[in-house]
Amino acid sequence: MTTFQDILSRPSLFNDMNVLSPHYVPDTLPFRDAQIKEIMETVSSALKGQKPRNLFIYGKTGTGKTCCTKYVMDRFNSNSENNGKGGMMQYINCRIYNSRYRVLQKVMKQFVPELEKAGFGLPFLYEKMIEVASNGKQLVIVLDEIDMVKDLDDMIYTMTRANDEIKSGGGVSIVGISNKLSFKNELDPRSKSSLYENEIVFPPYSSTQLQQILLQRATHGFRPGVVSQSAINLASAITAQECGDARYALKLIAKAGELAEAAGKMQINDEDVEAARKKVDADIAAETIATLPYNHQVVLYAIAHLSQGGSKYARLDGVDEGFLFSGEIYEEYERTCRRLGKRARSSRWYKEYLTDLEMLGLIMTTPSGRGVRGHTTLVKLGHAPSEILTIISRGLNFSGETGTKE
Length: 406
Prior knowledge:
Layout: H1 4-9, H2 33-43, E1 54-59, H3 65-83, E2 87-93, H4 100-108, H5 122-134, E3 138-144, H6 152-161, E4 171-178, H7 189-193, E5 197-202, H8 207-221, H9 229-242, H10 246-262, H11 270-290, H12 294-309, E6 323-325, H13 326-340, H14 347-359, E7 363-367, E8 377-381, H15 385-395
Parallel strand pairs: 1-4, 1-5, 2-3, 3-4
Antiparallel strand pairs: 6-8, 7-8
C-alpha cells in the first residue's frame, strides 16, 4: 500500500510550486514599471495625509492588474507604518465580498473586532467607517473585480459620498479593478457623478514578454535544468496567440511540469506543453463560465444551444461553418429567458454581453461578409457546445435539461 512517505520521497521536478501560482507576487514585476508608477503616484497622496483620487484599473485577465496593485499595496502599507500618517490600503475580492454590506463589513473588521459577531446593520458599519476616517485615517479600498458587486451603484455612492461627512483630514478612496472596460456604462448617473477618478489600462503581454516572465518564475519554481528553453518558447507563443494572459502561461507550464513528472520524465519538453494545453483550456473555460454574471451565462447557453443544433442560416453563401447570426442568438436568448422565468435584457445590453464573452475567449465574432444581405455580426463558440451546456446547466435552473434542441 502506498504511504505518504512513499509519495514525499519521490524526486520532484518542482522546487517551489507556489512561485508558479498566478497569486504569487514576485519581488520584481517585468514590463509593468509604468503601470506600477502610475498606481503609486495616484495613491501616494494618502501617505501625505491627503485623500487620493479614485482609480480604476482595466485590462484583460492575466495582464498583471491584481499583481501590480498588491505589489504597490505592500509597499504603501509599509511606508504608512513608517511615516505615521495613517494611510491604509486594503484588498477585497469582490467575487467573495459581492455586496455593499459585505464590503463595508470586511473593511471595518480590523478596526471593530465585535463585527465578527452577526447582527450589525449597514448604518452601523457606515457610521464606524466615518468615525475611523474622521480620526485622520486615509482608507484606500482595493476592490478586485468590482463589477461583481451586486449593488454596485449603492456601494460606490455610499463610499464616495462618505467623504462629505468625514472630518479631520481623513477620507475614503476606491481602487477598482475590472476586466470590463465598459463596466462604468452600467452605473447610475448619481454614482458616476460621485466619482473623480484616474484610469489605467493594462495591455496584454507579447510573446517575448511572456518568455521573460516564464523564465523568471521557472528559475525559482522548478529544479535547475528541468524546463527546456523550447518549452518556454512554445508556452509563450501559444499564450500570446490566444490571449496574452500571463496566468494562462503560468498554468500551462505548471501543468506541463505535473504531466512530465507523472510520466517519470526528467525534463519538460514541447510534447508536455501541448498535452497541458488541452487540460488547461478545459479547466479555465469551466472556471470562467462558472463565475460569469447571470445574463452572460444565459447568452452563452443560447449560443451553445444553437451551435449544437446548427444555424438555420448555415447554408447561406458567406457564412462559414459553425458561425451563427447575432439576431438568431438574441431570439434564442429571449426564449431561454422565458423558459427560466426571467426577463431578457435589451439588445443594447446583449451586444455588451457578446463583447465581454469574446474578451474572455469564450466566443469569437466577425462582421458578415459578401453574400449576406444586410450587415450583421457572426458569432462562433470557442469550445465544444456539449461542454458549455453541461457547465452552465449546473447553475441555471433547467430541471436537469442538458440542452437538447426543441
